[in-house]
Amino acid sequence: MTKHAVFTMAFSKIYYLYIQKVEKKNRTKEEVDQIICWLTGFDSAGLKHQVEGDNDMVTFFEQAPAINPNVSLIKGVVCGVRIEEVEDPLMRKIRYLDKMIDELAKGKSMDKILRS
Questions:
Q1: Alpha carbon separation from 94 to 26, 57, 110 (Å, rounded)
Q2: Environment class of 23 (CB within 10 Å of its CB; exposed 0-12, middle 13-18, buried 19+)
Q3: Which of 11, 34, 42, 94 could bond 60 through an S-S bridge, CB–CB 3.0 to 4.6 Å?
Q4: Is-above-0.85 flag for pTM?
Q5: pLDDT tens by residue, 14-27
Q6: Domain of life of the organism in this record (predicted)?
Q7: What are the Cα distances from residue 77, in Å, to 60, 70, 92?
Q8: Beta-bridge partner residues of 81
């Protein structure tokens, strides 16, 4: 299995990059938190603990309480790669999160982002 550089990046660093990205488009940290909690099953306190810790992306997803069963509804292309074709389970989870943050930054409604 190829070890991607993103696997060893600190979740907190990526989290703050997500917030910067969406705030430039007049979206909020609270919306980013809602997306991450929907995807991973973390509650607000659990997410805060992850952000304040120094966990890498591997550990972040290993500690996630439960990946949302509706993730299979997330489809499309992120960074030129079709999510449905990503074989590595961890990379697919990271791409799900990237796709949802991209949708937020592009102005989609939270109902559509959360596949409600």
A1: 23, 8, 19
A2: middle
A3: 11
A4: yes
A5: 999 999 999 999 99
A6: Bacteria
A7: 23, 17, 11
A8: 78
CB 33 within 8 A of CB 47: yes
Find the angle CA(94)-CA(107)-CA(58) to the nearest 5 degrees. Answer: 10
CATH number for the domain formed by residue range(s) 5-113: 1.10.8.290
Question: 56 pairs with which residues across the strands?
Answer: 10
β-strand partners of 82: 77
The tens digit of pLDDT for each residue in 34-86 reads: 999 999 999 999 999 999 999 999 999 999 999 999 999 999 999 888 999 99
